[in-house]
Specification:
By secondary structure, this protein is mainly alpha-helical. The chain contains 3 helices and no strands. The longest helix has 22 residues. It is rod-shaped, with a radius of gyration of 38 Å. The termini are far apart.
Length: 75
């Protein structure tokens, strides 16, 4: 087989629609597999402008009883 005949054969194979479709499908599958492997969920961004105010801490039961005792004593 001469080089000119070889190039004509290769060109005929590359121009065939089966080869082109197969190449496109394989590239898509490789892109999808790469995307799935390297996919990482982006962290959520908090809403700007709205900050939750810290709730006041409840008083322990002992402090409440002491306050009541002080009030009764002052009366």
């Amino acid at each position: 087989m001469k080089i000119k005949e070889f190039f004509n054969l290769v060109l005929g194979v590359v121009k065939d629609w089966h080869v082109i479709v197969t190449l496109v499908v394989m590239l898509f599958v490789m892109w999808a597999a790469n995307f799935i492997i390297t996919y990482r969920k982006k962290p959520r961004k908090g809403k700007k402008g709205k900050k939750a105010a810290p709730a006041p801490a409840p008083k322990p039961a002992e402090e409440k009883t002491e306050e009541k005792k002080e009030e009764e004593a002052s009366e």
